């Protein structure tokens, strides 16, 4: 799907059906035919657009080594997208988002529907002396960084809920869930690091962002990215510790169960041993007593109770 948008002087972003007077063209889940059309119409390298079709595509920049802006510049970022993991819990995967800047227009592309491109379809924050394509690219980058911050806070809450459940019981489902959280955070950290490198490369070039306002806005985006990266790194360490704690608790619970079962086995062995001795065809004490059986049962019970008390005193029961 191809969408065309024009930006008014007051910052309003309006979708237009005209492919002639627009400032921004956006491709969402594009077909190869649509990619061919945009690449041909606006002299854009085809691989700038087909990159979004590959889920494994890593963030990068291209076209920043020009002396003057003659060829399109590519800023390829990654953004988080919620999916359902094989264990049935929510997990985040990283998908590529392509931003192609020219002198007068910006072309964006992604292979999945995104929320951050729709946030400013109604209004765009206007900054004086900043070109509209640059403003759109900066605001998209800001929205992506904000999305990372929002999602990492969601993962933080999930982790805290798991920690509270830890005091009650530990189930396999909880271990699966924390594994999914850890996997999402690993993806977050890798994507944020690569996005940050791309934005820093864009800030260091003189081809774009030649005004103080534009550079200040991009600097704010960098700060937001660094904040998301810092929180993600901290949360990843905490989740790793929580996962280790889960494993330790499971192991400790198993040890407690084995300890109790061993103690029960020791106690139940007493009547077996005594009964076996008195079942032999040899002369034994009290064998000729009239109430020997009941005295023997009473002695076994007392011996079992004493053994149980002794094991409990040693914290083995």
Task: Describe the overall structure.
The chain is α+β, with helices and mostly antiparallel strands and 317 residues long. The chain folds into 2 domains: 2-252, Beta Polymerase, domain 2; 253-313, Methane Monooxygenase Hydroxylase, Chain G, domain 1, CATH 1.20.58. It has 6 helices and 7 strands; from the N terminus they run βββααββββαααα. It has helices spanning 32-41, 46-50, 132-166, 172-204, 212-278, 292-313, and strands at residues 2-7, 13-16, 24-28, 60-62, 73-84, 90-101, 106-110. Strands 2-1-3-7-6-5-4 form a 7-stranded mixed beta sheet, covered by helices on one side. The model has no long low-confidence stretch (mean pLDDT 82). It is found in: Membrane. One of its GO terms (molecular function) is metal ion transmembrane transporter activity.
């Amino acid at each position: 799907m191809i969408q065309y948008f024009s930006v008014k002087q007051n910052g309003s972003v309006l979708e237009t059906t005209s492919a002639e007077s627009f400032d921004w063209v956006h491709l969402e889940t594009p077909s190869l035919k649509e990619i061919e059309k945009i690449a041909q119409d606006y002299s854009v390298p085809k691989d700038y657009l087909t990159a979004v079709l590959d889920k494994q595509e890593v963030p990068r920049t291209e076209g920043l080594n020009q002396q003057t802006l003659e060829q399109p510049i590519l800023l390829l970022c990654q953004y988080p997208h919620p999916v359902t993991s094989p264990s049935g819990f929510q997990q985040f995967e990283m998908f590529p988002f392509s931003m192609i800047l020219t002198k007068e227009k910006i072309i964006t592309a992604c292979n999945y529907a995104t929320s951050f491109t729709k946030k400013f379809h109604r209004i765009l924050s206007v900054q004086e002396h900043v070109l509209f394509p640059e403003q759109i690219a900066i605001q998209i980058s800001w929205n992506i960084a904000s999305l990372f911050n929002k999602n990492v806070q969601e993962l933080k809450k999930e982790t805290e809920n798991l920690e509270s459940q830890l005091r009650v019981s530990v189930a396999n489902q909880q271990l699966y869930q924390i594994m999914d959280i850890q996997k999402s955070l690993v993806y977050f950290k890798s994507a944020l690091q690569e996005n940050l490198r791309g934005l820093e490369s864009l800030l260091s070039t003189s081809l774009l962002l030649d005004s103080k306002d534009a550079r200040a806005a991009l600097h704010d985006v960098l700060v937001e990215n660094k904040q998301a990266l810092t929180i993600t790194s901290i949360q990843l360490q905490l989740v790793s510790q929580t996962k280790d704690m889960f494993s330790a608790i499971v192991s400790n619970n198993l040890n407690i169960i084995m300890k109790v079962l061993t103690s029960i086995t020791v106690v139940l062995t007493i009547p077996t041993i005594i009964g076996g001795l008195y079942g032999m065809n040899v002369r034994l004490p009290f064998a000729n007593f009239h109430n020997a059986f009941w005295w023997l049962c009473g002695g076994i019970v007392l011996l079992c109770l004493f053994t149980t008390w002794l094991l409990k005193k040693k914290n083995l029961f």
